[in-house]
Design goal:
This protein starts with a helix and ends with a strand. The protein is an alpha/beta fold and 306 residues long. It has helices spanning 2-30, 68-76, 98-105, 132-135, 150-159, 217-225, and strands at residues 37-46, 53-58, 84-87, 113-115, 163-164, 168-174, 177-183, 207-211, 230-233, 242-243, 247-248, 262-268, 271-277, 296-304. The radius of gyration is 21 Å and the shape is globular. Helix 3 packs parallel to helix 5 (150-159). The strands form three sheets. The chain has a six-stranded mixed β-sheet with strand order 1-14-2-3-4-5, with helices on one face. The protein has a six-stranded mixed β-sheet with strand order 6-7-8-9-13-12. Bound molecules: fe (ii) ion. Residues 60, 62, 90, 118, 120, 235, 237, 280 line the site of fe (ii) ion (FE2).
Length: 306
């Protein structure tokens, strides 16, 4: 009958779409979310004559203690023997995760390091509508809910010798390189107080590095205007769900979509800086999927300008 012959192709199309969708969900939740990747990037930011510096950038671990594959992969990064570790927040995804985070960083805690906190270091994850991630653009989370043991995390990292850059400045000499840092607490929660740490980059430092969890424009602009030559951030998860050939749909902040992860340039106040945004290593336990956006850590090789 005519109705049946018209319905058959439509039914096949709907069935095909449903199967494709199910396959994508299975891939995103069953494989890619644990397909950890190490990226490399080279940045010409040091004065002529300085030896290269290898900086391991970790972000958005979102650790639940039972996540063994993630913990083992991150622990293995100590074999890289980086000169410096930078973590840009969102370490926790469970009330009991602090000991597991410290154990996961493991030997890396014996290297020089700096850190800032993200919203998920303060507040426990809560169930969300998965689709909300795709339409949430720049509005900060109006938290709140269950507090996490933030002080225990800060104490553990600080006792290992890592520098807490939450609304703070600091200096580290790594190898023969004199680094200055300026950092803020999470701008996504409006915990940033850049005015407390604002000021021109130190003239006697080889490089000033700005560190923030969420790469909001106000933070990147302020750090760049003050002369930071390198900005390091996380938070975006690289978009977490990307469209092959198009990229991220959202950045979860006001960062332009094209700069959602990896290296790019940032200009403000007559100054230019390199910006590195990590796609991060985890996700909220309530949105355990990634598509066309593998979890990652990055080895940034800082080399002299040519
Ligand atoms: Fe995150």
């Amino acid at each position: 009958m005519p109705q049946h012959s018209a319905l058959k192709p439509a039914a096949l199309a709907v069935g095909g779409l449903a199967l494709t969708g199910a396959a994508c969900v299975a891939y995103a939740t069953g494989y890619e979310v644990r397909a950890f990747a190490l990226r490399h990037a080279v940045l010409p930011v040091l004065p002529v004559g300085r030896a290269p510096l290898r900086v391991l950038h970790l972000s958005d671990l979102h650790l639940v203690p039972s996540q063994r594959a993630k913990r083992e992969w991150v622990r293995g990064l100590a074999d890289l023997e980086p000169d410096l570790v930078v973590t840009t927040g969102d370490n926790l995804a469970h009330l009991d995760a602090v000991p597991a985070v410290l154990d996961t960083y493991g030997e890396l805690l014996h290297r020089p390091g700096v850190f800032v906190l993200g919203s998920n270091d303060y507040w426990a994850p809560e169930p969300r509508n998965w689709a909300a991630y795709l339409w949430r653009k720049s509005a900060p989370d109006d938290v709140q809910g269950t507090r996490l043991p933030t002080d225990d995390l800060v104490r553990g990292l600080s006792e290992a010798g890592w520098l807490d850059l939450d609304n703070a400045r600091g200096r580290l000499r790594v190898g023969d390189v004199d680094l200055e840092f300026v950092g803020v607490d999470d701008p996504h929660l409006r915990y940033d107080r850049y005015e407390d740490v604002a000021g021109p980059a130190a003239a006697d430092a080889d490089l000033t590095v700005g560190v923030t969890h969420a790469p909001y424009r106000r933070t990147l602009d302020a750090m760049t205007s003050d002369g930071a030559g390198l900005l390091i951030a996380g938070h975006t998860h690289g978009g977490q769900v990307c469209v092959p050939g198009y990229g991220a749909l959202v950045t979860n902040c006001d960062l332009p979509r094209e700069q959602v992860k990896g290296l790019s340039r940032w200009s403000a106040g007559g100054h230019d800086a390199w910006l590195h945004v990590s796609a991060g290593l985890g996700t909220s336990p309530y949105s355990p999927f990634r598509f066309a956006c593998r979890p990652e850590a990055t080895l940034l090789e800082l080399v002299p300008v040519r």
